[in-house]
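Reopening this one. Same input as before:
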Amino acid sequence: MATKILKVDPVNPEEKYLKKAADIIKGGGVVIIPTETVYGIAADSSNDKTIQRLSAIKKRPKDKPFSLHIDSKEKLKEFTRDVPVAAYKLIDKFWPGPLTLILKSKDNGTIGIRMPDDKVALKIINKASVPVVCPSANIAGNTAPIDFTEAIKDLDGLVDLAIDAGRTRLGIESTVVDLTVQPLVVLREAAIKKEEIEDVISKKIVLFVCTGNSCRSVMAKGLLEKKLNEQGRSDVEVLSAGIMETEGLNASADTKEILTREGIDVSAHRSQRITVDMLHKSDMILVMDTMHEEHILKMEPQVKNRLFLLKEFARGDDNSLNIPDPIGRSRDFYEYTFSMIKEAIEKVSRII
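Same output, byte for byte:
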């Protein structure tokens, strides 16, 4: 019996067709769907019978696992553990997109996982509400299909439904990177080149955090960027953020004046609120006081070993490890805070 085919617009797909595909997957069926790379066969990874059927369809060894496809970065934590900083850097750069990461799984094994950059695929995965695997829609050993005609050719009658969205956007398989080993290994170089992977993971990221992201963290970021530039270094990215809700504010007037004196222009700075994504991808997180430290550990406890109080890198004139907030204080107080931050940055720039 021929497989039912539903043709959709890849830009504005009909929701009823996507829901039908999702319902079939949720019910234990298998469906050909497009991604930005190649066509795949979507199935519920938690259904053993479905996975056995999928292996039989592809004529693939039963002990060879399929990669999971997710519809949001937040889903990563549901299936993985001990995710390294390098993985988060790659995720930040390439997801959604043609990158499959091999990570440690919750059951102490390993898992391949990616977030496709395709509206049809993402919506079907989301609507299915089950963990979806989606290996290429071909018999093992054959070329992965980049248009629907190729995808249905060998699988007509073997799958329950097929979504026809024309030719895939990229027409090449995802790159596969194993991050369960050190150093990481590029298992399959495809849509993303090995050099691109190496460029992303080789760059260190330093994140400064204060309260409103308008003075202390701005000072620290500006000073470190200046020191790195003087050292001729381009291998470090410097970020700053605040723990308050407010976003889009300029640096305070006194902060601008003090940094201008140092040859640092922060006129384009706009405050931003710290996010879990920022914490995940940062190699070093430097905060101004213990309040910020506590806030971050509540957000994401796993960053504990990368989290430091900036004043730990300065001598200071008291026993406190807090760098005081100058907002609303005198210019002399701003200068006092700035001198403390500057001393700490001198040391940070030598060890990062």
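So the earlier flakiness isn't reproducible anymore. For the record, The two ends are 63 Å apart (CA to CA).
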